[in-house]
Design a protein that fits this description.
This protein is 70% helix and 5% strand. The chain is built from six helices and two strands; from the N terminus they run H-H-H-E-E-H-H-H.
Length: 162
């Protein structure tokens, strides 16, 4: 069942560490994660600092009228994309060290990442100052999952050509 035991163990450890870090970040109240005070200390922004933009998100609006809120939104949602890209790649690395075929590994990696994203949003709904929005799962998190699968596919193509 496992064709490369050291790689499987390493992948499993990294996967669990990644999930643990993501869980801990989700478990932190928003007040402790608020980046706006730090951004205000280090970066001078005005409403003209960004192109005119308004993003509708979970019934609210985020716009360049509040530049620090806008930048924090971009940073936080970019974090979603990045962390789910990494999580999906770790699932793929782990599953590819077993006898699971490539298509099944991609499918199971997507499903595992998707289920973790759903459970993470649900978990956040219990944390003070945090909200669990399924919109994060099917936009930002899923974008990261798809990006991870695309990177995986490109790496496989490059390796195949060599």
């Amino acid at each position: 069942m496992i064709k490369n035991k050291p790689r499987f163990i390493l992948g499993l450890i990294l996967l669990l560490v990644c999930m643990g870090v993501m869980f801990q970040a989700s478990n932190t109240p928003y007040k402790q994660q608020d980046m706006k005070p730090m951004l205000k200390r280090h970066i001078h922004l005005t409403p003209k600092s960004f192109p005119e933009a308004e993003i509708r998100y979970a019934g609210d609006s985020v716009s360049n009228d509040e530049p620090y809120e806008f930048l924090e939104f971009i940073i936080r949602k970019s974090g979603h994309v990045t962390e789910y890209m990494i999580l999906t790649l770790l699932f793929l690395m782990t599953l590819m060290s077993t006898n699971v075929n490539r298509k099944a590994a991609v499918l199971f990696s997507f499903i595992g990442s998707f289920l973790f994203a759903c459970s993470d949003e649900w978990h956040q709904s219990f944390i003070q100052g945090r909200t669990g929005h399924f919109i994060d799962v099917y936009t930002f998190d899923m974008s990261g999952m798809i990006l991870g699968m695309l990177i995986f596919g490109v790496v496989l193509l490059v390796m195949k050509r060599k």
